[in-house]
Structure prediction request, 485 residues.
Amino acid sequence: MNAVDGLKAAVLLFVAAILQVSIFTQVHILGGVPDILLVTLVAVALLRGAMTGAIGGFFAGLLVDTATLGQLGLTSLVLTVAGYWIGRYGETTGRDRGHAPFTSVAVITVLYAFGVLIVHFVLGERAPAGDVVRGLLPAIVLNLILTAPVYALVRRVLRPLDRGDYATEVQLLG
Amino acid sequence: MASRDRTARVAVLGSSVRRSRSDRRPARGRSNALLRRIILAVLVVAALAMLTVSFRSPTSGALHDVQGVGASALRPFEIAAQRVARPFRDVYGYFSDLATAKTENVKLKRELREARGEANANVAAAQRTSELENLLAFEQGARYPQDYRPVNTTVISYPGSAFAQQVTIAAGSDSGIHLFTPVVTGDGLIGRVTNVTPDQAQVTLLTDPDINVPARDATNGVSGLIRHGEGGTLILDRVAKEHKIRKGDIIVTQGTVDRRYPSVYPYGLPIGRVLNVGTSDIATFLTVTVEPFASFDSLDAVAALVSTKKR
Prediction:
């Protein structure tokens, strides 16, 4: 990934983080809250790989924690791992598959929710598992609704790489 | 170790192929994988470190200061985003409110019903408290008869019809209550026990035609017999014409006059106030109408007066 791509990804994630903390956190539909930052991160990670995903997740999480005056590092930790995993999926099996963004968003929404819950639990803070579980299905649906436009936008800004540019450990036979 | 430019044999063709330099993906992939893992590890460690510091001192310290500066820097962006989104949010809010108005209406109506029920319960509780305080004041007052102990209880059933003048109280022979035990409220006498079981007792009220209570005018000592009257009043009967009874006099139980014939009612239990005194040329006795102190329509907290004397 070159510097221009890095800058574009940074801007996308910055805008998504600002939108998330200032607008989307207030949208409660059937107990679920859409997460445009997570969807954007998934799109960036799928298009630019694990390293970009991890770094983008880290700094996007840092932005969220800073803006909300939350515990620094909490969101970063979970989004770093999420970005890395989705990036790896994009570099390997998820590449060129039409359903990859939707599958990734659905799975990562669940993992992210439980990841944050687990970190809160480990820190000995209030961890209302019931509320999280109740809001999970609506959150997945809302995130899936966001996936198509967000992925299309991110794909337009960050053009998909050639196959040779992917950092992969899986040797292609084709 | 084999050379990276080694030849690879393809099993199908059985011929050897020399790899070009551009096909050195595995080597580049390995270095990329290492770098990627190092970056991941560094980021995770950094996040954990920040989390630890932030958790240990959430409201002070250098990290907190940096976070404050960062939040201030992000604030304009957040405000801008909110301003841009406000019209959309207002439209969403409008339709959302419309959609939820019906549900909200049903919910509010239910809450109103519950609140009304609660308010009624509170009123009933307040009334009961007032009755209990009244009863306690009577039991601790000077009018309370000696040699009697109160069995405080509540009325659990009321007259089923206009013809029945009995109530049931939630205490019986297990509490020492027996037949003819007088029953009072904080205002005064209401009747006597006419049937008793171990844990319940039936009380026949003064308004029953079969009940007669020896009573006297507390002011001048004129005695008579209390019996039921018209429209919820009582009549002080058997009062000779020559006696002077005035409107407003207090009527109380007479108590035992002759020890050979002890009264079931102790002396001095308030019954009512004289409402009217009438007479006629042909009648032998005065017609003294008495307004009872106790309200027979709303009995709740009552006390049965059990004698402490050995029979």
